[in-house]
Amino acid sequence: MKRDLEIQRIFEIADDSLIAVLGYHFYVISMEENINDNAIWTCLPDGVISHTFSWDRFYHKKDLIDQMSSIFEFYQSRISMIAMVNVFEASLSDFISALNKKGKVQNFESNKLSGNSTYKKRLKWAYRESIQCDIGDLNAIQRLPKTFGIIDNARRIRNLIVHNHGIFEDRYKEDAIKIDNISVNIHPDFSKHESNTNIKIPVIITTEDIKNFSRSHIEVLHILHNTIQKKYFNFLTPYDYRDCNKSIEWHRVLWGI
Fold it and tell me: Which of 13, 221, 10, 222 is nearest to 99 (CA)?
């Protein structure tokens, strides 16, 4: 038997894209640490920023530089995490759509899963598929309850950022996936919100958090891909680029060619 090439392509695109996000994050953080404010000043627009095709907004360069200098890593970490979540969410949607198209229809809670299913539902599906895996990195398989907890935390933090300006709200904890033995992962600063819901508490994530989010998404992606290839296409050999001992091909993961 051979790997299904469409499933493999979905996996490889997501894998490359997640690596690209991590590489870009390291690059931007390093670049910010090694450039001075004067160099930034000369590259910024003078006086106004085009807000729409019709409107300009006035701004002060110093204000922007001062604010970005104080929170750059935290803000960039938000952007990187959103990108990771979006890539992983798209990969689950594509896996499900491909399997459905091939007649291997995916169901969850008596409802047919489609590419339009909620991400939370698709994560539950991915967990229950992944825990069936018995090939590849056995230590990674044993970590699945923990890594899925981290991935679900990233989902909920992404929702806070895009729907609530990155401010904690009760729904962040209430919306956690609570099935089987998935570990519920909670940001430590959420306790500040619980102590006083009248104070706005922003979500702060760092490069260390990005490393953990990246490891979790990529590790689970590999396990899920191995599961799908074995369960639905009877291909028993795990995908492992460590066997080739090859380095990251940045032109390909960043540019797709």
Answer: 10
